[in-house]
Amino acid sequence: TDVASFIAAVPKCELHLHIEGTLEGELVFELARRNGIDLPYADADQMKRESPFHDLASFLVGYYRNMQVLVTERDFYDLATAYFTRATAQNVRYAEIFFDPQAHTSRGVEFGTVLRGLRRAVVDARRTLDLHVSLIMCFLRDFPAEYAMATLMESLPYREWIVGVGLDSDERGNPPVKFEKVFARARAEGYLLTMHCDVDQPGTLDHIRQALDVIGVDRIDHGVNVLEDPALLAEVVQRGIGLTVCPISNGFVRGSAWEGATKRLLDTGVLVSVNSDDPAYFDGYLTDCFLRVHRETPLSIAEVRTLARNAFETAWLPTTLRTRFL
Ligand code: ES4
Ligand code: ZN
């Protein structure tokens, strides 16, 4: 088989996927109608055309604006189910998906509404699609640490439904150490830890260093800037820290500067995985992300297999599923 067919067919695992980033324009309009919300656009095409972005901060504006159509438990169920269906069609077998409770509680949607909707979709996906999904709760780093801590406390009744915690949103001026206490408490509660060290953000090498040494993360989301620091790179390899790289979103926001980064990380022995980040916004689900890497730097079938395997290897799988997938 050729590499492209192999990419499509190989069983895949996704570790860096914001469920709110799978909100397609058509669903925005359907939920707006259902919830009686007025949108300042005639249709999904116009909305997309008139919401351009050029960096992380400008991307986040449209991302949070569109989320306002998510109100009821059913909305969160429908959002997640739509992604699970698309992912399964691309041979994703296991996914650890991020959700941003504060993007909803901050506008009056209850934490439990979000969790129950997502959980019901996870349970149904296992039954109807044979897709296994775990939830990772992300804190919004541009809100105060106290709000993150309150969110962590709010999650404890749902502890069994959540495998770990992460950190996302606007990184500028919001370093990992801002959340040192929150992540220490999360660890004590048994959550596994990851956080975004987004590409080319100001202070990114310090952020990666803090994530490793102060926070003690189990994985890093993005983290491609380790390629600029041999000591950091060696440590990531030696500690077996997974980097969840997102080739399409990197290209979208950063242009061509990091083209080929996935292959370079792979060649250096990093446990790098390929992920789609916010596929509704960056126009590509997981197979498309692998194809992007292959277009940047041609991959052998063995290299595709390693990239797919790295994701399962660095996933937070329960033992029964580890033996099934690895
Ligand atoms: C995100 Cl690409 C990215 N970076 C940081 N936070 C995010 N939330 C959703 N997508
Ligand atoms: Zn992300």
Low-confidence stretches: none
- DSSP strand tally: 9
Note the gap between the termini: 22 Å
- Strand percentage lies at 5-15%
User: Could you name the CATH topology?
Assistant: TIM Barrel
Report helical residue fraction: 40-55%
SSE ordering: HEHHHHEHHEHEHEEHEHEHHEHHHH
Tell me about this structure.
By secondary structure, the chain is an alpha/beta fold. The protein has a single domain, classed as Metal-dependent hydrolases (TIM Barrel), CATH 3.20.20. The protein is built from 17 helices and nine strands. The chain has helices at 3-9, 25-35, 44-49, 56-66, 73-89, 102-105, 111-129, 145-155, 180-188, 204-215, 230-239, 247-254, 261-268, 279-282, 286-296, 301-314, 319-325; strands spanning 12-14, 92-99, 132-140, 162-168, 192-193, 196-197, 219-222, 242-245, 271-274. It has a five-stranded parallel beta sheet with strand order 1-2-3-4-5. Strands 6-7-8-9 form a four-stranded parallel beta sheet. Helix 1 runs antiparallel to helix 15 and helix 8 (145-155) runs parallel beside helix 9 (180-188). The radius of gyration is 18 Å and the shape is globular. The two termini are 22 Å apart. The relative contact order is 0.14. The model has no long low-confidence stretch (mean pLDDT 97). The structure holds 6-chloro-9H-purine (ES4) and zinc ion.
